[in-house]
Design a protein that fits this description.
Elements lengths: L2 H13 L6 E3 L5 H11 L5 H9 L3 E3 L4 E3 L2 H9 L14 E6 L5 E5 L5 E4 L5 E4 L2 H14 L8 H9 L5
Antiparallel strand pairs: 1-2, 2-3, 3-4, 4-5, 5-6, 6-7
Helix pairs in contact: 1-5, 2-4
């Protein structure tokens, strides 16, 4: 499901290497995903499993958007790194990454819904991880200094305009 998004982010990173630097983690196997779920008691959504089977997180330095690798998620979760989300209610969420602008990506543990936690403490729904990936690709593409039109990226963004 995320092969296209990872491929496009890599394409942008290669084409505009002076502006865009994205670090991708090594893909996880089904056994490694199962081990994460067992160690944390957290049930990953099918969408997250697909993402982590393509890349164990990513760090998009230009847009400051990142999805943490599973090891960081597990370490932070076990350390209680979600207790600041809602006073006394942090155990309802797991932190998946951040926008770098004081906002975090969360997953609600009871139902697998994705949320964005704003820098003012507001919690906003996100329909899908694919939406986040699309926003990142659009932002990367719009913010390069030596912009060159790219038919592949433009076709992707046109096809996914409803996500932007």
């Amino acid at each position: 499901m995320f092969k296209e998004e990872i491929r496009l982010m890599k394409l942008l990173s290669e084409k505009y290497s002076d502006d865009i630097d994205i670090d991708f983690g090594e893909a996880k196997s089904k056994d490694e995903l199962d081990a994460f779920e067992e160690a944390t008691g957290v049930k990953l959504t099918d969408e997250l499993k697909e993402l982590y089977q393509e890349s164990n997180g990513f760090d998009s330095l230009m847009t400051f958007m990142n999805f943490w690798d599973l090891e960081t998620i597990e370490e932070n979760y076990k350390a209680g790194y979600n207790d600041w989300i809602e006073e006394g209610d942090g155990n309802k969420y797991i932190v998946l990454g951040s926008t770098g602008g004081g906002e975090y990506f969360l997953m609600e543990l009871s139902n697998g819904h994705y949320l964005r936690y704003g820098d003012e403490g507001e919690i906003m729904p996100i329909d899908s991880i694919k939406d986040i990936m699309c926003w990142n690709i659009d932002s990367l593409y719009e913010n390069v200094r030596d912009y060159e039109s790219d038919e592949i990226i433009e076709a992707y963004l046109k096809k996914n305009a409803d996500r932007l």
